[in-house]
Amino acid sequence: MAYTVLQSFRDELTHIVYKPGVEYPADAPIDRIEKLTSLSVIAETVEVVTEANTVGEIKTFLDAKDIEYPTKATKADLLELLED
């Protein structure tokens, strides 16, 4: 399983600075992954986007692809961007 960084942070265990869009190590301790996920600092990497994804997951996917979108875009708006 892969994780994508959503918010900049300095890892308290490794002291590495992570920026949005980069991958967070999947081999990190599970309790660390759970904590960062619960704080919305990292999220599971989305490989394929569908209607089943949340708006947040779709935005993370678009951010990783450097695709810009309006701040208040709806799920339908975001999915439409992927069709282009």
From TrEMBL:
Pfam families: HeH. It comes from the Bacteria. Residues 54-84 form the HeH/LEM domain. This is HeH/LEM domain-containing protein.
